[in-house]
Amino acid sequence: MVSNGSTIPQHAHAAISMEVPLKTSASPPEYIAPRLACDSKKHAVINLFSRVVILASAVGGIILLITSKQTKLITIAPGLAISKVAKFSHSDAHRYLLAALCTAALYSIITGLISVLALMKPGGISSRLKFQFVILDSLLLGIMAAATGASGGVSYIGYKGNSHSRWNKICNMYNSYCMHVGTSIFLSFISSITFLLLVWINVYALSKKIARR
Questions:
Q1: Do 81 and 73 form a contact (C-beta atoms < 8 A)?
Q2: pLDDT digits (tens, 9 = 90+) for 109-162
Q3: Residue 69, SS3 per DSSP
Q4: I need a surface site. Which of 37, 53, 62, 87 has the fewest CB within 10 A?
Q5: How far apart are CA 140 and CA 101, in angstroms?
Q6: Spatial contact of 61 and 191, defined as CB atoms under 8 Å apart
Q7: For 9-43, what is each residue's pLDDT tens digit?
Q8: What span, in angstroms and rounded, lies between the C-alpha atoms of 101 and 143?
Q9: How far is residue 118 from each of residues 20, 33, 121, 158, measured CA to CA in Å?
Q10: What sequence ranges are listed for the domain Casparian strip membrane protein (predicted)?
Q11: DSSP annotation of 21
């Protein structure tokens, strides 16, 4: 018999301590991998959907801008009228907007195809590709925002005029032309906002991946 004053052997302490479960806040490895894969897939789907929105808005803006042509008879004297044509090519700002929309449409097609290929992969979009998207999306965001602002400023003068500079408004006569151009500017604004959201989404995805390391 073992007396009350005897001590428990050292190997018994080790056996008892091994039976106590360890508590940790970290998720088991088998649960982390599927969760990361699911997040990557969601990010790839959102990325692809955003680029489809950019493509649709850019193509719509191109079509409206190209078809923004209207001819009106302007009376300059009693019994005398001349034919005047209003079209987007008369303004450098509108031509710049058309070039920006074409660039955005082509870019969205290329990056959309890349996003589709990334969506087919198990890991989704890689960190390196996300970083490249951030750089290129920021560049396109600047181009689209500048073109939208420039074209919008010219269109506002056409809609309201400027009495100080003696610029007469024309949208009261060329209403169809102004409607086409205005809708095109609105669609380019949607493209700009979508580019901004893409930059935020990719930066957020990169920051989450860095935080897990």
A1: yes
A2: 999 998 888 778 766 677 788 888 899 999 999 999 999 999 999 999 888 888
A3: strand
A4: 37
A5: 10
A6: yes
A7: 554 444 444 444 444 444 444 444 455 555 667 77
A8: 9
A9: 44, 17, 5, 45
A10: 41-193
A11: P
